[in-house]
What does this fold into?
Amino acid sequence: MDQKADKVRKNKEGANITRHVDLRDLLEMFEEIGELEVVEGADWNLELAALAEQVCARNPGRAPALLFKNIKDYPENFRILSGAANSFKRLAVVLGFPEPEKELDLVQSYRDRMKEDFELIPPEEVKTGPILENIDRDEEVDLYKFPIPFIHEHDGGRYIGTDDVVIMKDPDSGWVNAATYRVMVQDKNTTGIWMSPGKHGRMIREKYFEKGEPCPVLISCGQDPLLFLAGHSEVDMNVSEFDYAGGHRGFPFETIASEIHSLPMPAHAEIVLEGEIYGDAENAQIEGPFGEFMGYYASDASAQPIVKIRRVYYRNDPILTMAGPSRPPSNFTFARSAVKSAMIWDEIEKAGLPGVEGIWCHEAGAGRLFNVISIKQMYPGHAKQAAMLAANCHSGNYAGRWVVVVDEDIDPSNIFDVVWAMSTRCDPPDDTEFIHKSWSTPLDTMLQGPPYHNNRGIIDACRPWGWKDDFPTVAESSPEWKDKVEKKWPHLFEK
It folds into this structure.
């Protein structure tokens, strides 16, 4: 099937909707809504990454995507894209949602889909696609033909894999995992790859290493942002990210069996590398350091497995996608915050928690470290139950730090409101608890070495259950009066 010729799909009500097929479709759509800026002549060495960092930091959740062209030392149309889904409007386009007004609108749309009509949609294998327009084999491979960015001044090298998807197959079950791991170029046909303990890709890799075999792998370095979103989310074990992303897309991704290992390669990807991960000590090379998602160099350079690249597949005028981790907000944290908020909400409701009004994983916490849940209290201990579930569900567990529970009148995405609730409805000795030895990562700034456990703080910033109805009344104008004055003097409220 020619998906490019069939972008109009029917939703569950039977209405026609237009969905993107590939990254290039999305760029056209972003340009139409004023969400894409083209940058000419940036240097791959630090300059373009610094620009991307500054642009998103100045306007979190609303900054444009940046498409870099005419990159120094490279052909005009060898491009880099930063921040594909990192705004309200663009994330809504990528996910096929109505345009949101605020953070929680996106989270609610995601939740509605998960509750009502979400189904996993496996990929469809095809024989050909744009990714086969160019193929470099064996001695032809030269990764430096692409404008790989040097992102941070103290990085150990240039990273081709940041906004990437690493595709592997479990040797026992055949389960296809597609996750996001950083990939540093070592030389023209060799990369390093860093995988955190406990991640699915690392588990698959170790199965091959235990057999004394290298691990077959594909590394997609430019693709539909839906695949990247799925790749850095806590999708359940034995569920393929291709299926999960296809469910959100509304129709299957097309894949092509790779030449060497027959792994599923996104047919409409921009750049895909194929090779093997070698786990023996003699092949290990120094990887890193790399500025990571918490905003620090939390892990030093270390000996890591290498990937020997034997094939490079790429489209004409390829687009390398870049997610440059930095002090938040970075050029991918908004999208992570929205998706992770929805996934936590989904999991804790499935666990039986009632009364959830909203969840937001704050960008200042890198979309993982500071999560706020708003509830309508219904019974004694409701707030504590909400906090424990949010801290320990699969999507909220990895590398968390703080969970704050607030009442339904508090917008969990508004940090001013959250701090106000913490300051006026929380008694620290009675309303703060801790969880010890939770799942963390070597990237955790507060850990100096294994085992990679961390501790969590739980803050109950809700009105005390025993006398919540007698709690002092909030001093503010009523919703009716707020609406009245906004209508009478609208110019004062223009954005």
User: Anything to note?
Assistant: The first strand starts at residue 8 and ends at 10. The mean pLDDT is 91. The first helix runs from residue 23 to 32.
